[in-house]
Prior knowledge:
This protein is about 35% helix and about 20% strand. By secondary structure, it is of the alpha/beta class. The longest helix has 18 residues, at about 170-190.
Amino acid sequence: xxxxxxxxxxxxxxxxxxxxxxxxxxxxxxxxxxxxxxxxxxxxxxxxxxxxxxxxxxxxxxxxxxxxxxxxxxxxxxxxxxxxxxxxxxxxxxxxxxxxxxxxxxxxxxxxxxxxxxxxxxxxxxxxxxxxxxxxxxxxxxxxxxxxxxxxxxxxxxxxxxxxxxxxxxxxxxxxxxxxxxxxxxxxxxxxxxxxxxxxxxxxxxxxxxxxxxxxxxxxxxxxxxxxxxxxxxxxxxxxxxxxxxxxxxxxxxxxxxxxxxxxxxxxxxxxxxxxxxxxxxxxxxxxxxxxxxxxxxxxxxxxxxxxxxxxxxxxxxxxxxxxxxxxxxxxxxxxxxxxxxxxxxxxxxxxxxxxxxxxxxxxxxxxxxxxxxxxxxxxxxxxxxxxxxxxxx
Length: 394
Ligand code: NIG
Ligand code: FE
């Protein structure tokens, strides 16, 4: 059998992969493999080995839930209407401020565990349900702590500019100054965040406020990314690209003429079909144009209590195909190689290559399209994180 590089998966039939000290030390065809001094040999039994999946956009640390607002939503109220009535993000902020660090840790751990069961080995987690110094720090500490509880790599993102907290109603500019001058410097000093995000939207923050946060972040040496063009076109994606940001996320209202600039600035387009699905949006991201121009597309869950109460990256892959028209190969690239790019960790994760972290999943499947094709039909046979087996075959 030949390595089929014409396949969009770039896969190797009858492959062999060797791991040493948590890194991929060799991979290729079995017949070309040198003699290894192995301590353990595992037979993949005809399954497919993929990189560990990467969920590059979640908000999985929060208090409470929003099931009651789901009732309102199902009676016809829009996400914006619910937000304007003090529901939405602000109701989660109230529940989160009331939750102890231990409570937040245990509810987040349960949600994270569900992602890991599906072969996720790296997760990005945002703050943004505290909106004051103390609670934002608590959320980021909890997010970081999760990797001491479960076998996963966590990247944290500070999303202080997620919504206007009640104590700053009518004073958005003052709140942005507070975020930039009093919260961000402490977050950076305590090394609690790898990047900084802003919800740039009519119900979030405008372009000049977003720019202030990005400027402050960059001064502190932090990468930026944005929730942009989700419900309307604000020009946030262009701004993120201007700052050489890691990723622009959502993008339903992104106009095609902005794509070339995103590509030029090497900003990754993160697609979040679960939010599109739960909010019953109609406008889709310009996928055909993105593909044509060669913009890198990642796929993530957006796991959060409001717009995406969904702890399944495999389902997000399915939704990206069904709702947005990605191919199953693009969906898999979107949760591996391109997701790693979106997190700035593409030298270590997201690919099966020599020198990369041995984060890997063995799937009992005949073809990788099966990962996107069904809902809850496939689960990993075995999972390794940095070479350590975290799920044994049953
Ligand atoms: O990514 N858009 C803003 N933030 C989240 C929703 C958060 C919430 O509703 O609690 C999102 O969709
Ligand atoms: Fe989000």
